[in-house]
Amino acid sequence: MSRATLKLRHGRFGDDVLAVHARAMPVHRTGMLLVLPDDRPEARRVEAVRRDFVANVSHELKTPVVGLALLAEAIADAAGGPVAVRRSGGRMQRESDRLGRLV
């Protein structure tokens, strides 16, 4: 018995992929091959949910990080501000940049 996965492009722009899993086995003494498709809609649904979750989390985390970076830059560039404010602003900027790279 052989197993294979076929990935078929479909949808309006061919950007959706349908994975069809199939098993093939010879029919005893006939020379014919029996192909048994195995649809896995649950696995496809779980993968789509995972992909959407990762994209949404990434977007949601980057939004406040960008805001934090802008605020830190403003604090760091404040003319005549105390040294502690500049040091804190610089640190905020470095950490927000680091968090942005991690995300």
Folded structure, characterized:
With 103 residues, the chain is an alpha+beta fold. 54% of the residues lie in helices and 25% in strands. The chain is built from 2 helices and 3 strands. Strand 2 and strand 3 form a beta hairpin. Helix 1 runs antiparallel to helix 2 (83-102).
How is the secondary structure organized here?
Layout: E1 2-10, E2 16-26, E3 33-38, H1 41-76, H2 83-102
Antiparallel strand pairs: 1-2, 2-3
Helix pairs in contact: 1-2
Give me some keywords for this one:
single chain; rod-shaped; 3 strands; 103 residues; 3-stranded antiparallel β-sheet; alpha+beta
Strand order of the largest sheet: 1-2-3
Biggest β-sheet: count, sense, barrel?
3 strands, antiparallel
H and E string: EEEHH
Class inferred from helices and paired strands: alpha+beta
Radius of gyration: 27 Å
Share of helical residues: 40-55%
Question: How many strand elements?
Answer: 3
N- and C-termini, Cα separation: 44 Å
Number of helices: 2
Q: Approximately how much beta-strand content do the residues carry?
A: 25-35%
Enumerate the spans where pLDDT stays under 50 for 5 or more consecutive residues: none
- On the 0-100 scale, what is the average pLDDT? 81
What sort of overall outline do the alpha carbons produce when their principal axes are compared? rod-shaped
What is shown here, in short?
With 103 residues, the protein is of the alpha+beta class.
